[in-house]
Amino acid sequence: MSASLLAACGGGGSSSGGSADGIYSIYIGEPENPLVPGNTTESEGSQVLKALFTPLVTFNDEDNSVEYNGVAESVESEDNVNWTVKLKDGWTFHDGTPVTSESFTKAWSYNALSTNAFGASYFFENIEGYSDLQGSDTAEPAATELSGLKVVDDTTFTVKLNGPFAIFPLTLGYTAFDPLPEAFYADPTAFGTRPIGNGPFKADSEFVPGQGFTVTKYDDYKGDNAAKSAGVNFKVYTELNTGYNDIQGGGLDIMLDLPEDAWATARDQFGDRYADRARPDITSLGFPTYDPRFQDPNVRKAFSMAIDRQAIATAIFTDTRTPANSFASPVVEGYREDACGTTCELNADEANRLLDEAGFDRSQPIDLWFNAGAGHDSWMTAVGNQIRENLGVDYALRGDLQFAQYLPLQDAKGMTGPFRSSWIMDYPSIYNFLAPLYSKAALAPAGSNYVFFDDPAFDAKLAEGNNAESVDAATAKYQEAEDILIQQMPSTPLFYGLNQAVWSDRVSDVKIDNTGDIVLEDVVVS
């Protein structure tokens, strides 16, 4: 997702669901940023952008392999450094202008340029010339365009990388690599409220914060997955419970992710209007490594070993979550079961030994941070209670910020204690669960390294993986990078999720895809 930080926040949309004209409604939370692909790295905005844009490549829903059901005809390389991207003919943006090679190359350079301060800038670091687009407090960037991008013709462009990167085609399914029309550059602010994409739906009005907007079917859509409805009303909510009440009362058509009191009962209540699927994500407890109390890896390991993940999964989540024992999701290439070993298992004696060895001051409580309105209160309280019981360290809950406020505070090193962190797959490789969250290049705000972890050995292993000659060889190096995370514990894996969707009797063909989103274009309105 987005690369996307997973959230379920949001505030009350209008009181009605979809209308009788073939438009259905869906729950979302408030997006953090304006709706621009290169600056949307969280789940709420990403779900909207997936309706409005079609990427170069897509992923097979069963095995996550690359499929060419998007704009690209092919993405090929003989050395994993120099890539040629060929586009299909006839694609257009919603304003009628053509989707060309420059629609991608110009957008990628804009996204990567540090002065634009886009949250997905990091995703372009492998392209030659990226470093020249990165300025500093004392110097402007040396260039404004990625030197590794060359337009051959309207339907062909080449990409030169800094070194071999075998999984490059996989990354192109992420929204940050979507094309932008010329209209974006004329007025980026206006575009962010009413995006002009190339996807199955188009925006006919501006997105209203706190409310949302309606997108309608794009009749000239070139892809195979044309919309089966007249449109989608994205309704913004601030509380999961409000949305769930609406869907029970007929004021909302589709809801993905449910409040705590519905986890165990929704299947029985909604029957054949319920679906679930393993979510390609991970929920972790992030540690502010910039805080002196959490700079020692032994402190971080101690907190990890003070948590009984299975007890929380059963008692709080009613087994709709699975204890995590790796930094990657089980659905991606490179996942290793039990990679984290005993460091991610309850061991109070060892945890206390490590905490004593580190000289941690137990007399001062810790803050536990999470975003409000998204069903995190109970399980974060359970985490706090276990830390208090197993380590003798008291805690204070800090769960009063909505998601759109919570993320900027992470960017600003504002976490004064461990914090809830979640990541959902952008593309199906272990690399996507490591580099965007823990590499130096991904330090916020250029990426999503909110723990501000900076380890040269970790970055070196990622680089070795990127320079490998095959996906298998790359994956082995990425796993060695994960081993360094396990030793350093900048965050601790907690749970893998389960997407649970419910819907009204007005709609059918509701499916959850392998990236954890509703397949919006397939929904049928009765």
Descriptive overview:
InterPro entries: Peptide/Ni-bd, SBP_5, SBP_5_dom. This is ABC transporter substrate-binding protein. Residues 70-441 form the Solute-binding protein family domain. The protein has 15 helices and 21 strands. The chain is an alpha+beta fold. The strands form seven sheets. It has a four-stranded mixed sheet, with helices on one face. A four-stranded antiparallel sheet has the order 4-5-7-6, covered by helices on one side. A four-stranded antiparallel sheet has the order 14-18-13-17. The chain is globular, with a radius of gyration of 22 Å.
**Low-confidence parts lasting 5 or more residues at pLDDT below 50?**
1-16
Number of strands: 21
The profile of the biggest β sheet is: 4 strands, mixed
Which structural class is indicated by helix and strand composition?
Answer: alpha+beta
Major beta sheet, strand line-up = 1-10-9-8
Radius of gyration: 22 Å
Mean pLDDT metric: 94
The amount of helix comes to 25-40%
What brief labels describe this structure?
526 residues; alpha+beta; 4-stranded mixed sheet; 4-stranded antiparallel sheet; 15 helices; disordered N terminus
Detail the topology: elements first, then pairings:
Blueprint: E1 23-28, H1 43-52, E2 58-59, E3 66-67, E4 72-77, E5 82-87, H2 101-112, E6 149-153, E7 156-160, H3 168-171, H4 182-186, H5 188-193, E8 201-203, E9 212-217, E10 231-236, H6 240-249, E11 254-256, H7 266-270, E12 274-278, E13 281-286, H8 297-305, H9 309-315, E14 322-323, H10 348-358, E15 366-371, H11 377-391, E16 395-401, H12 403-411, E17 419-424, H13 435-438, H14 456-466, H15 471-488, E18 491-496, E19 498-503, E20 507-508, E21 524-525
Parallel strand pairs: 1-10, 15-16
Antiparallel strand pairs: 2-3, 4-5, 5-7, 6-7, 8-9, 9-10, 11-19, 12-19, 13-17, 13-18, 14-18, 20-21
Helix pairs in contact: 8-10, 14-15
Domain Solute-binding protein family: 70-441
Organism: Rhodococcoides yunnanense
Pfam families: SBP_bac_5 (PF00496)
